[in-house]
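Input (JAB domain-containing protein):
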Amino acid sequence: MKAYNTIPTNENEPPHWSALQEVQLSYRNKLKASQRPKINMAEDALALFRTVWNEDEMELVESFKMLLMNIANRVLGVYHGSTGGTTGTIVDIRILLMVALKSNACKIIVAHSQPSGNLTPSPADLKITERLKDAAKLMDIKLLDHLILTTESFYSFANEGFLGVFRLNTFVMYLVFNRLWVY
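Output:
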């Protein structure tokens, strides 16, 4: 049997299993389920995101947030994922899923600000949305939407059919979203 690659230890010394820390997860919500906002459409999510977003920074830097919901679309919380620069921000899918699992979310909606004011999804936006949707599905979490926000407007991947039943490859999506499709 092959051993895992581990840090070398003194083979004459027994392992100190009791020194290992147990991981504990907890989540406390101060509102009763009936008091939590319910999200039925992209405009509901937009309104909630706008209440937690710093409008003064929206045209300055790109940032990413995630709305966590239970099976009945009741809001469990909003997670601030990252703040980047003028042209992008880091989206760590592992951390997003860790937060979703820890809060016991069944559904999520993500959003990012677009300092340029351009609401057209970039190839990177399309790719991260597809990757997050696939990864969340493995955990029985449904990605309902990805919103791109500016101070004046928004774009909804769900409203535009990107998160629907039919999946196109990312390149074809890029062509369609940028109206470059040639017949």
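The two ends are 58 Å apart (CA to CA).
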